Amino acid sequence: HIADLRKGMLGANGIVAAGAPITCGAALSAKLLGTQQVAVAFAGDGAMNEGVMSESFNLAKIWMLPIIFVIEDNGFGEATANAHVSAGSFTRRAESYDIPAVEVDGTDVFSVYAAAGEAVERARAGGGPTMLHVHVPRYYGHYSGDPDTYRTPEEKAAMRRERDCLSNFRKRVKEVSLVETAELDAVDAAVEAEIDRAVSAARAAPFPSLAALTTDVYVKYL
């Protein structure tokens, strides 16, 4: 789980929902130091059923922490649909702690930007936490070996066709004449070329020596 404290990136956590209280600590630090920083805790729909999420909501509200809880809801906790494991509404759970909660379409860049901007402004103004319930698609299984048989091929095809954030962004900016199609094509081409270069470099690279086994395993900031 990659982390870089210099970038304000505290890293992912191998324990489901365990990032939320850690992020509360980061938010408390920002509040006490008066840095105007805003901490953002990312979690999934499965994490919402862990007790530590409720504890984090309570702590964030009691201390009016500058924190945003982003819940990326793709409808499944590993291979189990939310309907089988999650009671009620996620937004109402946050609201029960008097935390503003917003439903957001995660495939709409503009909606996400607007909702996140409001949450950041609220946090910096001393208004405390916000929860963004972001609805996102999951195109593949939970992990590389997941057979992903709990969804039909038709469902996945429709998801790709209708809920691709990049395709939707391209369509939206074209409709309102924000970006020329040629500019978007150039970006796509540049990204594809960069990916091709990275893949080629990886395939051409020699296997590491045994002596390099522990290199960069632990980070040192000092």
CATH topology tier name of the largest domain: Rossmann fold
Mean pLDDT: 94
Over all CA atoms, what is the radius of gyration?
20 Å
Q: Percent range for helical residues?
A: 40-55%
Structure commentary:
- The chain is an alpha/beta fold and 222 residues long.
- The protein has two domains: 159 residues, Rossmann fold (3-Layer(aba) Sandwich), CATH 3.40.50; 41 residues, no CATH class.
- The protein is built from seven helices and six strands, in the order H-E-H-E-E-E-H-E-H-E-H-H-H.
- The protein has a four-stranded parallel sheet with strand order 1-2-6-5. The chain has a two-stranded antiparallel ribbon with strand order 3-4.
- Strand 5, helix 4 and strand 6 form a beta-alpha-beta unit.
- Helix 1 runs parallel beside helix 2.
- The radius of gyration is 20 Å and the shape is globular.
- The model has no long low-confidence stretch (mean pLDDT 94).
